[in-house]
From TrEMBL:
Family: Belongs to the YciI family.
InterPro entries associated with the record: Dimeric_a/b-barrel, YCII
Occurrences of domain YCII-related (ranges): 2-96
Name of the protein in question: YciI family protein
PANTHER family membership: BLL7163 PROTEIN, BLL7171 PROTEIN-RELATED
Organism: Terrabacter carboxydivorans
Length: 143
C-alpha cells in the first residue's frame, strides 16, 4: 500500500489541479496495464472525519479536524507486486506533479496476508473471510 500523507492544502479540501489528475490517472493506467493496480482513492479532509476510541469501557467519538497533518492520510494506492523492490520501482514512477512536499514522503507498507497471522487465524476463520470478500465483491459488482 502506498500511503499519501495529508498537507495543509488537502486538509483545507484542495484536491489538485487538472494536470495532477491527468498525471495520476496516467500513472494508475500504467499500473493497471502492468497488472499491479488494485485500488486507489483520495480521502476527504479530517474535518469531515472522526476518531473513535475505546476508553474506560466506552466508545468515544471525537470529530475532526485533527492536528499534525504530516501524520494524517490523504489517500492511498494498493498495488499487488512480487517484492518490496518492485513496489519501490513503482513509487519511483509516481507523478512528479503529485510528489510530496519537501520534508514529506510517500509511505510504503505491506498489507498483511492470512499466512501472516499464524495459528490463531484458523482455517474456519480464513474460510469465513474468503466468503465475506466474495460476497462484498458481488455486492460491489451489483452497484
Amino acid at each position: 500500500m502506498i500511503i499519501v500523507h495529508a498537507t495543509p492544502e488537502t486538509e483545507q479540501g484542495t484536491t489538485g489541479t487538472e494536470q495532477q489528475f491527468a498525471d495520476m490517472q496516467a500513472y494508475n493506467e500504467e499500473m493497471l496495464r502492468a497488472g499491479v493496480f488494485v485500488d486507489g482513492q483520495g480521502l476527504h479532509p479530517t474535518a469531515k472525519g472522526a476518531h473513535v476510541s475505546f476508553e474506560n469501557g466506552e466508545w468515544v467519538v471525537t470529530d475532526g479536524p485533527f492536528a499534525e497533518s504530516k501524520e494524517l492520510v490523504a489517500g492511498f494506492t494498493i498495488i499487488d507486486v512480487s517484492s518490496r523492490e518492485e513496489a519501490i520501482e513503482w513509487l519511483r514512477k509516481w507523478p512528479v506533479s503529485c510528489a510530496p512536499a519537501p520534508g514529506q514522503a510517500l509511505e510504503l507498507r505491506q498489507v498483511l496476508a492470512a499466512e501472516d497471522f499464524g495459528d490463531a487465524y484458523t482455517p474456519e476463520l480464513r474460510e469465513r473471510e474468503e466468503q465475506m470478500r466474495a460476497d462484498a465483491a458481488r455486492a460491489a459488482a451489483r452497484g
